[in-house]
């Protein structure tokens, strides 16, 4: 009997992942975006997906930032997660003209004469930025931790979705994913070949990682500095963040170039300042609140 129950549980988890990772976002990406966006708002209100994640994010955020209405905050968090998932398919199914009509861009990309190191965040919904990078002439790798099943779903079906995401990078302008841990030489070789790198530093740090202390939301945090410390190839550097208006569905890309002569310390301070401004505007867009106790130093 226990075996039957276990099989039934595995089947339910797999079915939920097939529906939430493939069927629902894939179908919505085929529909007119104005209609799909209204449906996504309903999903964020009524469907069970992302509720545990939103509760965990709220528990971490409420100790750091003021939250006037917990339910609205969590609903917006779930909506951003739904939009990000739907974007995995929209980037494949919509062309350049469609995206350009729905994105507001603040700032300019660095000049294309040399490779670039782009720093961004687990904030907002930014899968579509690969189209923008390609349009600007940049061919970039994405540096990321190797995903686990729990990062995307609740069953082994999530591993299929992870492979699909990796495949979609190449289809929408990216060069692929470089997983952390032994990627130093591949990053250096990519930059020397004229390719660019996209990385995110708003993560908890392990004991062995090099770090720098910066200020975020009035609290001390330690950010990993290994990616910046190891760049020994002449390249431009820029910060960007990908916002979305949850009333209209329009996207906003903010780009902040960094000077080539700025040191690692200054780069990380400006990186933290950019994230600080985004978190004060829309803290519910940040996907790392569940790790807040490991990122923010105690008062």
Domain tally: 1
Question: Which structural class is indicated by helix and strand composition?
Answer: alpha/beta
Radius of gyration: 19 Å
Task: Please estimate the helix content.
Answer: 40-55%
Coarse shape: globular
Describe the strand arrangement of the main beta sheet, using strand numbers. 1-9-8-2-5-3-4
Number of helices: 12
CA-CA gap between termini = 51 Å
Largest sheet: 7 strands, mixed
Order of helices and strands: HHHHHEEHEHHEHEEEHEEHH
Walk me through the structure:
This protein is α/β, with parallel strands linked by helices and 299 residues long. It has one domain (2-295). It is built from twelve helices and nine strands. It has helices at residues 2-30, 33-46, 51-61, 70-93, 96-100, 129-135, 149-152, 157-171, 184-192, 226-229, 264-281, 292-295, and strands at residues 103-106, 116-120, 140-144, 176-179, 196-200, 211-216, 219-224, 236-244, 251-258. The strands form two sheets. Strands 1-9-8-2-5-3-4 form a seven-stranded mixed sheet, sandwiched between helices. A two-stranded antiparallel ribbon has the order 6-7. Strand 8 (236-244) and strand 9 form a beta hairpin. The longest helix is centred in the N-terminal third of the chain and has 29 residues, at 2-30. The chain is globular. The termini are far apart. The model has no long low-confidence stretch (mean pLDDT 90).
